[in-house]
Amino acid sequence: MPSRSQDSAADARSAVVDAAHAAVARATAREVAVHESYDRARNVLRLQARRRALVPLTREMLSTPGTLDAHAGRSMPAYAWGLPVARRRQLLAVICPTASAITPAIRAVLSTTVIVVASVAEEDRLARVTDPRQRFAVLSVRVPEPAHEEIVDFARRNPTPRG
Question: What's the predicted TM-score (pTM) here?
Fold first, then answer.
C-alpha cells in the first residue's frame, strides 16, 4: 500500500502534467488565433484589391456608349457587402458580394441583377448560394497579392471578432 507521501508526490506530478497540458493548449489556441487573423486579413485585402480592379471595367461595361454614367457605390450589407453599380439610380450590377453574407432576402435582390466577379472560382462559390438563374460577368483582372507587412498591419488594426 502506498504511503501518504507517495500519494502526494503522484498528485503533484499529475498537477504539473495537467498544468503543462493546459499551457500547451493555450499556446496552441493563441497560435491558431494568430493564423486565423492573418488569413482573414489576407482575404479581406485580396477582396478589396479585386473590387478596386473591377470597378473601372464594370463602369465602362455598363455605361451608355460614349459616356461613363454608371457609378459604383459603397460596400453595403444590403448587397452582401458587394459594391452596387447603378446608372440613373437603377441597380445594374453588384461587384464581388460575399457568399457567406447572402441571406434569402439578399438572394432575391441579387437575382434581378448581374454579379461581377474576377474568377470562375469566385463565380462557383457564389453560384452555390444564389438563385440558379443568377447572371454572372467574369472580368479578367490582374490583382497582386498583398504584401506580408500590409497583411500584418491590417490584422493588427482590425482584430478578428471573437464569437
Answer: 0.76
